[in-house]
Structures are given as C-alpha cells and as structure tokens.
Amino acid sequence: MPIDIIVCIKQVPDPEYFDKITLDSATGTIRRTGIPVITNPADRHAVEEALRIREEFGGSVTVLTMGPPQARKSIDEALAMGADRGALLCDQVFAGADTLSTAYILSGGINLIGRYDLILCGNETVDGSTGQVPAQLSEFLGLPHTTHARRIDMIDDRRAVIERVVENGYLRVEMELPAVVAVLKRINTYRLPTVMGIMEASQKEVLELGCSACESLGMNSCDMGLEGSPTRVAEVFESPQRRRVEMLTGEPQEIAKQLVRRLHQLDAL
Amino acid sequence: MKEIVVWAEQKENRLQPVSLELLEKARELSDQINGSVVAVLMGHQCRPQADELIHYGASRVFCVDDPCLSFYQSDLYPKILARILSDISPEIVLIGGTTIGMDLAPRVAAKLRTGLTAHCVNLNIETIDGKDQLIQVVPGWGGNMLVKIICPERRPQMATVRPGVMEMGKPDKNRRGVVIPVAAGVSEKDIKSKTIEFIRDSSEDISIEEADIIVSGGFGLDSAGGFALIEELARAIRGEVAGTRPAFDQGYIPEFRMIGQSGRTVKPRLFISVGASGAIHYTTGFSKSKVIVGIDKNPKAPIFDMADLGIVGDLRKIIPCLIEEFKKEDPQK
After folding, report:
1. What ipTM was assigned to the predicted interfaces of this complex?
2. Which alpha helices (H) appear in A114-233, and where do they start and end?
3. What pLDDT score does A19 carry?
4. Which residues, numbered 3 to 62 in chain A, qualify as contacts with chain B under a Cβ-Cβ cut-off of 8 Å?
C-alpha cells in the first residue's frame, strides 16, 4: 500500500537578516540584495514527515516549489534529505503572485506531477507568514484540507487521522485521501542531509515546469503572477514603534523601589 | 447597502473575544462607508450567541444552527460561509486570526476568488480613484516595515486580524437587530475531513493574549541561570510568563507563550521584557502594551527604544530585588 506524497516547499529570506532589509524611501521599494535565503523552516518538517511516511508504507516523495531559478537549491536540499524527485515551477509569468495566485499555480504543478495520495505543506512561511496557501491550494484541487497539524497517523492509503492544534487543545480529524495537510514545526525533528544523500541528490530527476505546461492543462495565465493576484501592495513604510524611555539607575534595591513606585504612578500594577 | 461581514467564531457556544473586537472595528468602518454590520454565526444550538452579537453591534446575524457544525469542520464551514457571502455580496469580510479562522478564511477567499490579507494590525477606508478601498496594514519583514495592502478590483475585501489587536467595544442590550436562520444545506456526504473530537490539552491551555501582566524572557536569561528567575518574578507580580523565539527554540517556553511576529501579539497593561535585546520581530508582538519595562545588561540594546522604563544591569542582581519588592506589595505571593 505505497503512498505517493507531494511536498510543497518555499525558499525564503533568512529571518536572521530581516533587520537588514531596508526601504528605499525614494522609490518605496524593498532593498533585499545580499540577504541569504533558506528553505522555509516549517517546510523542512513537512519533507521530514513525508520521508517518515514513505519509510513506513513505501511510495514516493516529490518536492514542489515555485520560485526563481535559484529556488532549485531548496529542492536539492530536500532531495539530499531523501526525497525522490523534485519539480520547479519557474516562469516570469508567475512573478508577483499573491497567495491566491500562488495556490493556483501550485495546483497546476501538482496536476502536472499527477499521481499523489497526500500533499504536505509547512503551515506557514517566515516571510509572509500568512499561512494561507495550503487551504487555498486544496480549494483549487478540490480536496479536503487540514492546517495546524501536530501529528499525522496514516490508517492506509485512503485515510489518515490528524491531530490539529487549536488554542486550548487539539481536534482529532479523520480525513479521506487524497488531502492537503499543513504541518506545524513541532510535528517532528527533521534529519540533516548526509554526504551520501547529497551525492545521490545530483542523480535525481528535477522537472522544470513553466506557464505553458500549466496552460496545457487548460489553466489561464491571466490568473497567474501579479496580473492574477487580487491584492496589491499600495505602500510600504518604516514601522514607527519608538517610545521615550526613562532609565532607572542606582543600586539594585533602589531601582526595584523606583520601579514599583513608577508602575503605580503609571497605573500599571 | 454596503455590508461588512464579521465571521463570529464560537467554541463550545462561547463567542471568541476576537469576533467581538472585529464587530467594533466593523462598526467603525461601516460609519465611513455608510454601510451596515452583519455577523455570520455557525454552530449547534448557537442561537443565544446571535443576540450577543447584536448587543456588540451587528444589525443582522445569519445564524446557521446544525448538529454537524458543533465542531469546526474544514469542509463544511468554508462551503456555508462562501455561500452566504455570495448571496449578500458584502464589501468587506473580517475574520479572527485564530487557528480556526486562519484555516477558514483562505479557503473561503479561494472559493470566492478574491483577495485575503493576513494578520492586519490596522484597517481603515481610503478613497482611491473614486472608489472606497479597505486599507489593510500588515507588518512586513519581521515588523521592520509596515505594508499597506489593498484589493482594488475584486469583492469582498477579506482580512484576518489576530486576537487582541483591535479594541473590543461595550455591549449595549438596547441595540436591535435581526437574526436570520439559515439552513446548513450540507450533509454527511460533503464531509471528507471530519473533526470527531476536541481534546483539551493543558499544555496548550492559556491564552496569553488575555493576561494583564506579562513577564517575557529572552536568551539573555540563559547565562543568568535560565527561566526560573522570571517565573518567580511572574508569580510575584501575578503575571504570565512569555518569551522570545530564541527562548522557545531553547525549550524554555512552549510555542503558545512565544511573543512576536511569528508568535503571539499581546497588549497587556504591563509588559516586562527581561534579557532580550529587542529585535524588531520580537518587539512587534507587544509594541501596543500600555506600559513596557525593558531590562537588559546591554545599555545599547534596542529594547530601550521601545520601553517606557528601562533598567540596565546584571539580571542575577536586579531580578531578585524586583521579586522581593513586588512580594512586599502583595504579601500573599
């Protein structure tokens, strides 16, 4: 009862360097040249979960990403972890896609890959952190979805039981497959690529899919990229968060007394 | 009439505070576009909550009461909400950014092929090219920037807002409104993803957004003997413990106590940050607190640009004195 899994991943700017991203106030655009990129952390856990399911049930793991040519590096990383093959959705037409358009394009990639029982995603990315793509993807595919998964138990190739985190506990969800499941980072600890894995990765197949491949499925390029995105960035500005600080000085005991007094004056206790 | 719809989330037939916060925001926006506020409520035996929504400002409540809706169902809820929205064609739809709202909203937006903006920190109306547009302000790049997003052509304009970001209004029992019962119009066979039970898990149990006082620790505590120090401080001041992403990564706090862009947004009466330099993706999670106290050993730490009161010094010396002083205030602790 092999299970074929597609994992959607994304290459993102490294959050460690977010404070190096600056605004060009003349043009209102973001300067992010030289900011290192990584595979979105939650997506690595999604790859790991897929590998674990394959190890138990057999089947295959395909990683899919949409991005510029250099996003290939994130595919290679997943292949080195043990994924069987990759697919890169890459086309100028895709540029500027918001979550709706991204989900639409990814659904094309998934239909081009063709065979799958389960689609895994990270619950959200660290750059946009909207967490919207998995549920939107499932709509375009006409599949059931669950987000915020902290545990996946495969019953067989037709059913899975998911523990889905809510604010004060979790929901147990029974899903018919195929389905889209978005996983939280806590679902597992992911493996690091081995030297052997890295060597094998270079032998693995990576499909390159563009707009015309999607159009061959009857998809419409007007729904892709910036043109197909309902939302627009109207303006970017630097965040005004500063306050005027009053420093408390003296011996620790003295500072503690001052603090309690000031907090009372500010009605904060 | 231009409608602003708020999806009213209930759990075990209790309305979630974020939905009431959004009703107040919707009231404010509806004044600007001369519109009206509509709530959509789904659940089982949830009719009493419909009246409460009217008290908080909804002039109409679409109430979908069905046994198969007692838990959130990721197949049924989006289907029903999308159908109601198609019928009333609202201008704006606001949904609380809870773990459930963040599952529902994108699926509904995709069904309606419209735009959705996540984690808005501000919403207002501006007229652009003669058309009223919802200006949706979100933090970008770890909160370093603010980004205004619009959905110029398609309707409705949809946005999610995290709990605690907007102010809740006061209920008024004299407000009148209409409750419109709506049939679920779905059956078991529509369910391919079925929630079968809710399990309370105390490790997921507190809502840090509701705390009045929060004591939050950063990685600086690692060299000062760990989180025991601020746990004691939190007890002395009757506050909740929270922390930064590095504190979470280090295992000092569970994820639901993590503050910042990728964690929780809080605005307590008092926020005390200890041993955290104050990176912007952390401070964005508490910048709206009423009073902020920053404590760190580095006098140049950016936390002091964010704080009302600042203390520089050795945490191992300062914190015990604070604990002692707070205990004097409240001898029972």
Report:
1. 0.91
2. 133-141, 195-201, 211-215
3. 73
4. 13, 15, 18-19, 21, 23, 30
